[in-house]
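Allow me, if you will, to draw on your knowledge of protein folds for a short while. I have a record of one protein: its chain in single-letter code and its fold written as discrete structure tokens. I should value your view on which stretches of the chain appear to form regular backbone elements. Thank you for your consideration; the sequence and its tokens are set out here:
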Amino acid sequence: MRTPHPTRRTVLAGTAAAAALTTLPALTAQAHATEARSGSTAGGYRWRNAVIGGTGFVSGVLFHPARRGLAYARTDIGGAYRWDDHKARWTPLTDHLGWDDWNLLGVEAIALDPAHPDRVYLALGTYTQPWAGNGAILRSDDRGATWTRSDLTVKLGANEDGRGTGERLLVDPRDSDTLWLGTRHDGLLRSTDRGATWASATGFPATPSASGQGVTLLVAAGRTVYAGWGDADDTSATANLYRTGDGTTWETVPGSPTGAAAKVPIRAAYDRHTRELYVTYANAPGPNGQSDGSVHKLRTTTGTWSEVTPVKPGGTTTDGGTDAFGYGGVAVDARRPGTVVVSTNNRWAEIDTLFRSTNGGRTWTSLKDSAVLDVSETPYLKWGADKPKFGWWIQALALDPYDSKHMVYGTGATLYGTRDLKNWAPQIRGLEETSVRQLISPPTGQAHLISGSGDIGTMYHERLTASPSRGMASNPVFGSATGLAQAAAKPSYVVRTGWGDHGNGARSNDGGRTWEPFGAQPDIAKDAPGPIAVNADGSVLVWSFVHWDGTKYAAHRSTDNGATWAEVPTFPKGATPVADPVDPARFYAYDTDTGTLYASTDSGASFSARATGLPAGDSQFKLVAAPRRTSDLWLSAKTSGLYRSTDAGAAFSKVDSCRASYTLGFGKAAPGAGYPAIYQVGSTETRTVVHRSDDAAKTWTRINDDAHQWGWTGEVIVGDPRVYGRVYLATNGRGIQYGEPT
């Protein structure tokens, strides 16, 4: 999933110490219930998700063992959720985390207290890199309606390799006040005050590494706690499983499996009836990169290990290739002794499956073989094909302890659920994890919204309350969108760019409902598809190219709908092209390296420098042209604020009403107002929030509140040109939020 920061893994080491204690503003259970039904009132606004359905990696699911219908889910970048079985939907629990806490939207682990059903704990932290903040623990006594926060002095990695292992957080089975937290680079931590303070666990024998996986799982088997260790090398006998019976003395579990197929313990589940602990293994932490794996069980009463691997990786696929994969999720049936389910993971050739056994792993049945998948509620899951896959990246797997036929498993994009072990459908209502990159609100047509996102490309939203019926835009299908633009004076004409296997650019003549690929594309497009702009009448395209590693390339121009392209050497490399919404001959671009505004008056054939001396080197800029006006430009700068030009970029004036501006967009003017409504993610004083201005940025009104912040929201914001007050906001993990005045 996408992050607003680089994702290259770097070495980090740290130590655990006492945590700072913070109490979060209360969000009542009634407020959560209201949001689940119809959105919540926030800053005079009601905020809801534009429904897509899932779209991200669900990395863990836990049913509460003592309360029917109560479950929780975690995601790698989109926060945590609570399941309401009566309403059949998920309620978001971490939307209160704001801009400064964007790194806490990744949930490393969840812990439940079997003895206290209303208690829930979250371990938060998305990255372990130096540029990311430390992790935190949230703890609740009311199922996540309110939280108390404890800041850690170590980093967690919910969106790094190994994010599907776990759980890494556990309530001690002997004492509800004691919690265990497994970290990636700082060993095992222990709290004796319900997560308020933490210290290194004494006696834990494994030595943490600055680059390894550390503790991959914690599980209780009766009164014994087991810890999986993910730093053993491929062939050594280094232990990968430890246990303690008293919370003080740890020992290596004798006879633990070793070798490449059992290098990393991924997940574990305990059958209390047979007193057997099932452990899945792989040769890499996943979810990517696994090519071998196994399943083993330990009879805890005797210490005897047995291998119960359903199918050993490495066989021959139907097309003659190698059937490489690891094992991921595991769940036991609380009502039926000896019944266990495991998942394969990273099995791209033969497609991942769930294996189910009713006799302790002696024989297995593949549930994929008889599965009937119904994705009518989330059609994008067909990925442009005739039918959906059963799954991939299956590491989250859970069995309802009160219903043996109710099972859910996570994929890289959704949660599938069944009530009869045969018919499966997304069990995803209320859970939206999209990383959104592009938004357009057309001035005419059926759809009020067209979106471009990471992983799921472009979508045409006929309704905001249902997943788009057309699914991902096809012909061709793009995995991730990099550009989306509409001709201002010809809104039926839309273009898009992105990462695709069959071309990287496409155009639509019906407002984004159907598409056809460009007739040709520059050679660099396949490696560095970037943003695109179309002029006001739809006659000229300007396409910029930026590689994912930041390398910038020369832009290209087409005057024949993408049939041919010519390089534009005077365009600033890597800049985002912006079309004037009125004059077809005008394009603009902002060179962030030099702080220079470039403009074209010959339909993008050439660009020349205009205003200079503007902010440069800032990590985030957004150049926007005001709708239905020519030469009216706004420059949003992260650390420098907001600037405006009314002479096509010849000169800019600083707007004094805001201190910092991350992204800016326009919508329908307020009744009686002479200028479009302006929407902004930025700060007028010290806090970064969502604003609206009805007087051309002279004054601002905050339109979100502390309960609705969604972490990092700096990519794009746009108002609806047909509905005053309605605004669409892109998030990095909580999908498309849209707000309307109450």
About this structure: Residues 29-38 form the longest helix (10 residues). The two ends are 33 Å apart (CA to CA). The longest strand covers residues 490-500.
